[in-house]
Write a structure and sequence with these properties.
about 30% helix, single chain, 7 strands, alpha+beta, about 170 residues, elongated, Alpha-D-Glucose-1,6-Bisphosphate, Chain A, domain 4, seven-stranded antiparallel beta sheet
């Protein structure tokens, strides 16, 4: 299932990227139905930044999902790769137990925009265009429709926290 998200920030693209790649920011960020993440990797090589997080879903699972998981916990790896100079990259995520059955990816673009609306000199916008895939027949489409609103809500919450951090300087 395709998705698009767009978030506005009162700060420069560089400031937004720095927060998104900051492991401490993510360790402190409380997202609904998720454990605090384990930082698996945080690295920079030239202009390339990578942040890999492991999350556990701690919310209520619907009975079909619970039956599919059995006794296993739902954990996944989320990778953010960003070119700090260009403001482009990729967000990927996949269930650890079955990465071929539950996964997704999105292109990420963070660019400057007019800061007049926010009353700031610097402003940025983040755009994500991606796809969530649940490859479990015949339930995949229904599962995608149930999962996607929560994913988008968590991206919105993350964006609000990024904006607060950038404004605080």
């Amino acid at each position: 299932m395709r998705f698009h998200a767009e978030h506005q920030f009162a700060g420069s693209p560089e400031a937004v990227i720095a927060v998104l790649l900051d492991p401490e920011f993510h360790r402190e960020l409380a997202l609904p139905d998720l454990s605090q993440p384990e930082v698996v990797e945080a690295s920079t090589d030239g202009t390339a930044g990578v942040l890999r997080l492991r999350y556990e879903y701690v919310g209520q699972l619907d009975p079909i999902a619970r039956r599919l998981l059995g006794d296993r916990q739902l954990t996944w790896l989320q990778d953010l790769h960003l070119d700090r100079e260009r403001g482009t990259g990729r967000l990927t995520f996949a269930a650890e137990a079955a990465p071929d059955r539950l996964n997704g990816a999105a292109t990420v673009t963070i660019e400057a925009r007019d800061g007049a609306e926010t009353g700031t000199e610097d402003a940025a916008v983040r755009r994500l265009d991606g796809e969530l895939r649940v490859a479990i027949r015949p339930l995949g489409g229904m599962a995608e429709r149930r999962i996607l609103p929560g994913l988008l809500r968590r991206l919105d919450i993350e964006a609000g926290a990024v904006d607060q951090r950038v404004r605080a300087g």
